Amino acid sequence: MLVFVLGIKAVGKSRVILELQKHVKGIREISYGDVMLEIAKEKEGLKDREQIAALPPAKQKKIREEAAKRIRALADQQPFVFLNTHGFIYTLPHHSYLPGSPDSVSDVLKPDFVLLVEAAPQAILERRQKDLKEGRKRELGSLKEIEEALSCERVAALHLGMRYGCNVKIFDNTAPAEKNHDVPALAALFKSLSE
């Protein structure tokens, strides 16, 4: 089963997956961004993910499509893959949204389930500020920009559900995943899907 895990930067997708791995055996996380960075290093000589967002949209699209092929090949070898990705990516310096999972990419991946991770905008802003203090490269954004990005991400999740006829689960991760009392119920959902 291929699960798209969507959410904007600093919403806590990786932490949710980590907590789910404690409850559900066989979950393998694959980060779309990490696979894209591998390709960007090979083809463009880039050093970090933030540099990908500064590439011209046509180059970003080629990197995404190559990543989809690599990820699909990995997913075909695993029983339960959680793909950590974004529905839309805010691009710099263009100040626009580029689909992170356009149909050309999703048609290669064909998700079985979509998990949309959301959180209150203020919580996301605080996580981004903490990341910056810890030396992680990350754009901060305003509360208004975060709200807009959350809306775009929800549109992407619902579109994927409609296109592939798969379930979409919206998970509130305002409380950090390791303290979120809803994680066990989410784990039970995925256990039932894997049976």
Which tags fit this structure?
globular, 8 helices, 7 strands, 5-stranded parallel β-sheet, Rossmann fold, 52% helix, alpha/beta, 195 residues, two-stranded antiparallel ribbon
List the helices and strands and how they pair.
Blueprint: E1 2-6, H1 13-23, E2 28-31, H2 32-44, H3 49-52, H4 57-75, E3 81-85, E4 88-91, E5 96-99, H5 103-109, E6 113-118, H6 121-133, H7 143-164, E7 167-172, H8 183-194
Parallel strand pairs: 1-3, 1-6, 2-3, 6-7
Antiparallel strand pairs: 4-5
Helix pairs in contact: 1-8, 2-4, 4-5, 6-7
Derived structural class = alpha/beta
CATH class: Alpha Beta
Specify the CATH architecture.
3-Layer(aba) Sandwich
Assembly of the depicted chains: single chain
Per DSSP E runs of 2 or more residues, the count of β-strands stands at 7
Helix content: 40-55%
What profile does the largest beta sheet have?
Answer: 5 strands, parallel
Low-confidence stretches: none
- Shape designation: globular
Computed over alpha carbons, the radius of gyration is 16 Å
Order of helices and strands: EHEHHHEEEHEHHEH
The percentage of residues in β strands lies in: 15-25%
- Major sheet: arrangement of strands: 2-3-1-6-7
- Tally the helices: what do you get? 8
Distance between the termini: 11 Å
Looking at the structure, the CATH topology is Rossmann fold
Averaged pLDDT: 91
The total tally of domains equals: 1
